[in-house]
Amino acid sequence: MESTRIIIGITHGDINGIGYEVILKTVVEPRVLETIVPVIYGSPKVAAFYRKALDIQGLNLNIVNSIEEINHKRVNIINCADDEIKVEMGTSTNEAGKAALSALERATADLKKGALHAIVTAPINKKNIQSPTFKFPGHTEYFEKNFGTGTPSLMMLVNDVMRVAVVTGHIPVDKVPAELTEKLILEKLIVLNESLKRDFRITRPRIAVLGLNPHAGDAGVIGDEEERVIIPAMKQAETKGIICVGPYPADGFFGSGTFGKFDAVLAMYHDQGLIPFKTVSMDTGVNFTAGLPVVRTSPDHGTAYDIAGQNIASEESFRQAMYMAYDIYHNRLWNEEINENPLVVEQRSERRERGPRVE
């Protein structure tokens, strides 16, 4: 296998949504195999069903039992589901939830043992996937539990126009103010800053921080979280060399196009950041989990039950997620390489102590 090609695991998500449609439409492209070895964790039976229903021509899947059996020149699929599994397009079923979890757990195990270079997850139904082994509000929290290093991970939405990260993720809106602490905001700023440098090769990132309240609190008139929590966290971040500006009122910030002046935006809660992001880029955005030692991306949309099986779902977001996983993996290799043997700069006083230079 050429050094530039990487093995990417793809979990099939909810079999009754648009997961298989966007996966198959992406991996059927011949150019994929030039840089990526795709390994779908799912069901050959369900894949065949959708391939026929969507009339996808020219795609032959290499069916294997384990990651050790994959063909590096083919699109592979590992069977993770019951052979009697039933597709009910556009419907949430317990069976679909079990199949989604089985694929996710199998891929996670292979990622842990280093058999995959990155993972791309197709959309799940956050309700039907719940089980004794999956009690999370989403993929982000699941991967943080399995691969976290002690500091919080970070949900980041990325496209060609902006990068938006969120301090609080999949939690009810009424719990956001209590969750926002100076410590948490600082931790998220640190993770975001490091990710921009390591994963996106930005030398000196500029980060915009949004306020929580309308008008960013109007100096305490409409809420005090900005003065009491957000600004102190930003001041701490600045002492660590992080360039962060704000807090900005969210409406004017996006409406005026100010986001274009920054490398990333840190929003305080899920919809504050994701609504403007998806308005601009619903079909091309990528969800990236920053702050983890593994690379995990996904399309920025959900199961889309309402259009499942109609052959009208756009695969562009999934395609971008797969290629972004490739790029981030190689950016990390590049970052490790340039930092492997850093030059040690001696202090001027130390050189004096060693005496004059002898020719």
What would a concise description of this structure say?
The protein is of the alpha/beta class. The chain has helices at 19-27, 32-35, 44-53, 94-112, 139-147, 176-179, 182-198, 225-239, 250-255, 270-281, 316-338, 348-353; strands at residues 6-11, 36-42, 61-64, 75-79, 118-121, 154-158, 163-166, 206-210, 243-248, 264-267, 286-290, 296-299.
Written overview of the protein:
The C terminus is likely disordered. Helix 1 crosses helix 11 and helix 7 crosses helix 8. With 359 residues, this protein is α/β, with parallel strands linked by helices. The protein has two domains: 173 residues, Isopropylmalate Dehydrogenase (3-Layer(aba) Sandwich); 143 residues, Isopropylmalate Dehydrogenase.
**Rg:** 23 Å
Termini separation: 50 Å
Largest sheet: 12 strands, mixed
The structural domain count equals: 2
User: Which strands sit side by side, in order, in the main sheet?
Assistant: 3-4-2-1-5-12-11-6-7-10-8-9
What class, by secondary structure content? alpha/beta
Low-confidence stretches: 348-359
Q: Report mean pLDDT, rounded to a whole number.
A: 92
Name some characteristics of this structure.
359 residues; alpha/beta; Isopropylmalate Dehydrogenase; 2 domains; twelve-stranded mixed sheet; 12 helices; disordered C terminus
Topology, pairings included?
Blueprint: E1 6-11, H1 19-27, H2 32-35, E2 36-42, H3 44-53, E3 61-64, E4 75-79, H4 94-112, E5 118-121, H5 139-147, E6 154-158, E7 163-166, H6 176-179, H7 182-198, E8 206-210, H8 225-239, E9 243-248, H9 250-255, E10 264-267, H10 270-281, E11 286-290, E12 296-299, H11 316-338, H12 348-353
Parallel strand pairs: 1-2, 1-5, 2-4, 3-4, 5-12, 7-10, 8-9, 8-10
Antiparallel strand pairs: 6-7, 6-11, 11-12
